[in-house]
Predict the structure.
Amino acid sequence: MNAKLRVAAISLALSVIAGLVLLLVRPARDPAQIRPLPLLIGAWMAFIAAAWVLRKVPLRSAVALILLGGIAVQLAALSAPPQNSNDLYRYIWDGRVQAAGVDPYAYVPAARQLTGLRDEFLFHPGAEYCVPQSYVASHPAAELAAGCTAINRPTVPTIYPPVAEAYFLGVHYLPGGAASSTPIQAVTALVAVLITVLLLFGLRRLGRDMRTAALWSWCPMVALEAGNSAHVDVVAAGLAAAAILLLATARTTRRTILGGILLGLAIATKLTPALTVPALLARGDEPKSPPRPPREGIRRRWSTVAAAASSAFIAVYVPHLLAVGSKVIGFLPGYLQQEDYTSGTRYGIIGLLVTGPLASAMAILILAAVALAVLQFGDPDRPWQGAVVMTAAALAVTTPRYQWYALLLVMLVAFDGRLEWLAFAAGAYYAAEPNMGRYTPPGRLVDAIAYGVPVLVVAGGWLARRELARRGIVLAVPLREREPRAVRVRSSAASQNFLTG
C-alpha cells in the first residue's frame, strides 16, 4: 500500500470514529437505536486500524493527520451536551461558588447558605437529583434547602483537589462559563489537543516515533471524556505528561525541580497521577542495564523530585486548609465507602477469590509489590514504561466503573507505544456500559471480564514480544523522517513496539 492509499484509509477510519462518536453523544440521530457498546466497539476498532496503518505514513503527513484527526473527533464529541457523565455540572458549580468568594470545600451544593447562587441552569424542577423537603426536615443539622439540581450528590462536599478547583474557577470567567456546559467542554477539548502537541514535541525530543501520539489524539476515550464529558482527568493527564517529559530529559537540578512541581500539581488536580511516582523515582538497578554516564547521577535524584512534588502539593492545599480546616478532604472518604472499597466488596477480579477485609489487604499488597518492582527495576530514562505497568495494575486491582480513570493510561501509552495496554481503557467502557440485552453477563462478573480480558491481552503481547526476541527479530523504530535507516533498539519485551516495524 503506497502513502496516498494509507492516508486515504486513515482519513476514512477517522471519519468512522468521528461519526460513531457523534452517534454516541447524539443518540437521537441513530435511526437504528443501536446500544452504546457496539458503537464503542466500532469506534475502537476503527481507531486501532488507523493507528496501525499510520506506521508507514511519512512523518510530515502523519503529524498533520494526528492533529487534524484529533481536532475532528473532539469537535464531534463537543457537538452535544454531556451524555455519559454529569460531573461537569459540579465543576461549573464549584467555579461559581469560588467566584462568589466562598471556599469550595465549605458547603455542599444543597446548603442553605448557597441558595443565592442557584439559577435555572443548575437548579430547576425537572433536574435529575432532588433534595425533598422531607429529607431537609430529617437532617436539620446539615442546614440544607430543598430543590432539584443537575449536580450529582448534592448533599455531599466536592471531591476535587485544589488545582482542579482553580481550573473550574478559570473556566467560570469565560463567556457563558457559568450558565452553559459548552465552554468547559470546549476548554477540555482544547487541553486534549494541546496534550497531542506536547506529545509530538516530547516524542521528538526523546528520539521516539512521533506517530504514537495518535494513540492519544485519536482515541475514542479521549474524545468522549474530553470534548463531551469534560473530565478534569484530562488536565491532570496533561500536567503529568509535562512532568514526565521534563524529568525524563532533565540535565539540571532546575529542570528536575520544575518537573517535580508539575508532578505535584498533577496529583493536586486528580489523585491518579500519583501512580506515576514509583516510575519517576525509579533507581534502575536492573542487573543487565548498561552503565550510566558520569553525569547521570545529577539528572534526577529521587529526593529532589519528591521534595518538589510534595511542596507543590502541600502549597495548593494550605489556603483551603486555613479556610475550612479538615473539610478540605472533601468527599473522598465517602466516595471510598460508597463505591464499596472500604467494605472490600468492590474488587472485580480479586472478588472472584475473596471479599471483605481480606480482599482489601490483597489489593494493597499487590499494588505495593508492583510499586516496589517499578521503583527497583524501572528504567529512569523511560519512566513511562513503569508508569504504564503501575497504572494498569491499579485499574486491574480496583476495577473502577468510571472509564475516564483510564485517561492517564492512554497518555502513558502514547509515550510508550505498546498498543496492547490500551485494552484496559477499552475494557473500562465495558465496565461502565455492559448492557447488551440478553447477552449481558451477571453483574458480579462484568468487572472481572472488563479488566480480566485486558490482563490476558497484555500477557499475550508480552509472550509475543518474548518469542520475537528469542528468534532474534528486532523491530525497527523510525526516529526521524530525515533518517533513512532504521535504528535498532533493544530486543527486550519492554522495548518493542507494535506500532512500528
Notes: The first strand starts at residue 129 and ends at 131.
